[in-house]
Amino acid sequence: MPTIKKYTLNEISQAAQWLLSELKGRKVIALHGTMGAGKTTLVSAICHLLKVEDVVSSPTFSVINEYRYDDNGTQKRLYHIDLYRLKDEEEAIRTGVEDCLYSSDYCFVEWPERAAALLPDDAVHVHLSVEGDMQRSLEIA
To answer: Which domains are assigned to the chain?
Structure first.
């Protein structure tokens, strides 16, 4: 049964915290949603919660952004991947996406359907949708 969280943009930090708590140790998160649904905004909020040291930006042109954060004295990485501009799974492999997905670090993947076969079996599929002017919805499938 899917788990759903509704929130407004002003509540994005709480939604990000809720999602992190629902992951239960799983590290690859496939973010599904239309353009403007808030995928990058959600990842930015998660980076803020984790106190990422780097400037967070959209990976639309770079495909993969790597961020660092401290986890109880241990340096960890978080990958933010945007597959929108890729043609196929082969291009994703050449870009290094597969290395990130199997790194055991957090990987947030926008437009995961572009390379669905590369995702690990335990990837968490999160569907974001816009509900009205201010309301958003996160559904963990």
So the answer is: 3-140 (3.40.50.300)
